[in-house]
Amino acid sequence: MVYTCRIELDEITPKIWREFQFHPDVTFHQLHKIIQTVMGWEDYHLYQFHVNGQIIELPTPTFEDIEGREELNARREVVQKHVDEENSVFTYVYDFGDDWRHTITLIKSDLSTSDPTPLCLDGARSCPQEDVGGVWGHQHMLEVLLTPNHPEQGQFIGWIREGYDPESFSCEEVNLELQRQKDKLIPKSLVKLSESKKPVKLTKSVLNKHLKQLSNDQLIDLVKACYGASKDMERFLAVRILGDEAVESLFYEYQKKVENEFFPERGYGKLRLKEAKQAISEFERLTGSVKYSLELKLIYVENGIDFTLTYGDIDERFYYSMASMYAGIIGILNEDETADLFDEYEERIEAIILKTDGIGWGFHDNLADLHTQLRWI
Questions:
Q1: Quick count: other Cβ atoms within 10 Å of Cβ 11?
Q2: What is the CATH T-level fold of the domain 2-188, as seen in this structure?
Q3: Strand 54-57 to strand 72-73: parallel, antiparallel, or no bridges (unpaired)?
Q4: Checking phi first, is residue 184 left (phi over 0); if not, alpha (psi -120 to 50) or beta?
Q5: In which region does residue 154 sit, left (phi positive, over 0), alpha (psi from -120 to 50) or beta (all else)?
Q6: pTM score > 0.70 for this model?
Q7: What is the distance between the alpha carbons of residues 32 and 95, in angstroms, rounded to a whole number?
Q8: Which positions fall inside the Plasmid pRiA4b Orf3-like domain (predicted)?
Q9: FRET partner for 314 with CA separation of 20 to 30 A, picked from 99, 117, 246, 325?
Q10: Where in 275-358 does DSSP place strands (E)?
Q11: Domain extents for the chain?
Q12: In this structure, are strands 2-9 and 72-73 parallel, antiparallel, or unpaired?
């Protein structure tokens, strides 16, 4: 059994809409994930479903103590329990700041279809940018982009996601992503588990043996296929083939990723420290560049300090993350036998200590202690 629904983004014309299928025994949290993929959102923010006068969402400590607030847990509530009649209408709200409201209509329930994998059937127009400022901000952005020589055009062109076209939509791309996430987007009872099969792992010895058996043309085809397999592989090959030029270009891309978590070009920083640290690790893995990896780690700490100086004390977790990254920086400098890196970054390393004077949670003292461990001073 599957549900076929139509979802429309409210208050925007021409309509941004999708028609899609999913198994009715998914939870509302799974439905949220399906909608994020189908619409093209990036799952940065909180959400709510409004169904038959009830609010269904992920419980958050922020609202626990508000008297009279009743909410159902989106991880536990099954869609079919609340939506079971054709032409039923309910609302999905994403990002309470931008307040993106979506109207969802159950078009039909089909008993003849057994495949539980979500499927996008049709749609029109591209999803708005995250954090653009809601409906008004989206309409303003489109007006700026479509107006030749508009004074704000440069600001938006540098901010919008790569390849953004407000009129484009691809069912095929959405369905590839839905298929990739399949096991997370169908009822748990329908996920097929095979205990008899052992995980298949390609070892270096097997890879080496296989590569030796390939002709030059087959090796070329394999590398080309790897290039098109993922963005990471494309970046990895660019570094290996183009060298320092590609590393430097990649550095600026990842620098922006880190800085955007603290001080984005629009709005306030989300402060997703995990995302910023993953970007640094990813860059380090793809390039192997000690110097540029050190630079990214410094940017992480410097932006973190500027953030707390701008907005006030954060929390222990935040300061522990900053101190941990700073310790990693000290470790890199101590491993450098030439002291060249220390000579280049000495002033910035010391400036971090000076700027943290007066910050709470023992943060300054921790960094000062780490600084004394430098072998070059």
A1: 13
A2: 3.10.290
A3: parallel
A4: alpha
A5: alpha
A6: no
A7: 12
A8: 2-172
A9: 99
A10: none
A11: 2-188, 230-371
A12: unpaired
